[in-house]
Amino acid sequence: MGASHSIPLTIDTITLLHSNPRTTLFCQSRLQNPVFRLNPTNQIFKTQLKTMSQTSQVVPVNGGKVVVRETPDESSSRPINVDGIDQEVVDKMVYDALVWSSIHGLVVGDRSVKRSSTVPGVGMVHAPLALLPMPFPESQLKQAYDLAPIFNELVDRVSLDAKFLQDSLSRTKKADPFTSRLLDIHAKMLEINKKEEIHLGLHRSDYMLDEQTKLLLQIEMNTISSSFAGLSGLVGKLHRSLISNYGEILGLNSKRIPDNAAIGQFSAALAKAWTEYNNPRAAVLFVVQAEERNMYDQHWLSVTLKEKYNISCSRKTLAEIDAEGELLPDGTLVVGGQIIGIVYFRAGYTPNDYPSESEWRARLLMEQSSAIKCPSISYHLAGTKKVQQELAKPNVLERFLDNKEDIAKLRKCFAGLWSLDDSDIVRKAIEMPELFVMKPQREGGGNNIYGNDVRETLIKLQKEGSEADAAYILMQRLFPAVSPTFLIREGICYKEDTISELGVYGAYLRNNEKVILNDQCGYLMRTKVSSSDEGGVAAGFAVLDSLYLT
Prior knowledge:
This protein is α+β, with helices and mostly antiparallel strands. The chain contains 16 helices and 22 strands.
């Protein structure tokens, strides 16, 4: 059974002394000198995690809060001291931030206004945001940027291996009806020998900077509906504006906030794909949810496509596509009388988007068409949690990538990932659930299982004795540093202890054998209260942030 876990990392001995049993997924680690006995083939940690045994310097600051500074031999920077900012200055900055967000389109629908999720311009409110950027090592941002093209290529290679996708998800199919339906569509495309000439991926790989190991570790790879490319760049511009006005008081330099052209690069990728489709009458179809408070993030893309590239866009739900869509004899997709060149999914990633057979018919219709799908069904499946776990197994990356340096770079950022058919790791997770996260095959936030719920769920699955455990994977729990900062929601500013998650966007475009585009496309920084397990902004757990390079 040991061979079934995804990373050759065995945890024979873990010494855990928690001073607070409520430590959450991204909370600062309270581990005291953890001891990991490593499999000699492990490629992630080259040593016995020497950095985990080094002690940090704990320095008290104003307000009785604690800042954990790195040891002298590590690259270090003093965190932004929010406790030292005068309240009057904070109030002025908050006011300016709210004004800036309102006039620059850094907005979402107001959940208290009924029509805010369906009618543009009705009930807008500033997006949840951090008042100040989050310090982040420049070297690790570069690392994440360098990884983006490699992950893009990996997704494309995996998508072409139909047997790998079907085999990897075969047990999951029996336990998870949603994944089963996606696999059925994939199998149908294989049955009719459907070939995709043009492949377009707009991805986002999410990471955390682990406080103990100082490693940048991947949380997940998103291949469908990678959100906030439209709003993320605006947050950096907001923070630059605030620091330009208040930087002398704060002791900050606005030039340390990196450029973030996510919206420009995503729209450019869509425009290049539209050009490859080679029909000037074709439009880009945004597949959306019936109610979408995050519509303005999407409208930034569609407006940019129209104003910069003169490409028309339309927005339809899956149900509307089922009612209005048709395939012409040559495979051309027509929806509402409009030829569709690109199908861009901002919905369809959760079972909630398929309340009836109508939505599944629409998904199949689009997949059968000659339109470029972003993502195709194979790209969608390549981004599932189970496939992520399978790719982390020994020697699997070599099946898809040739460059040994690229493979080593990917393995370095892999966190521990395991299948639930590994009885040894399941036993460890029951004994010490604080060190693990259970993940189902779901996107969108609010789905993972933490803490004592991990133990209870695993015990329940063992008692049932069914294949229901195949719907989940286990992941190593990450412990980033905690930093106090200001969060703004609905016009109210709160000072909280927080943790952050970095997402790096990537775009990949290939026409037959010709790779037209493969690059990183900027970043998304999300910050949340450290006592919260989940981290999605749209799901209400986090706020948008930017980086302050150190």
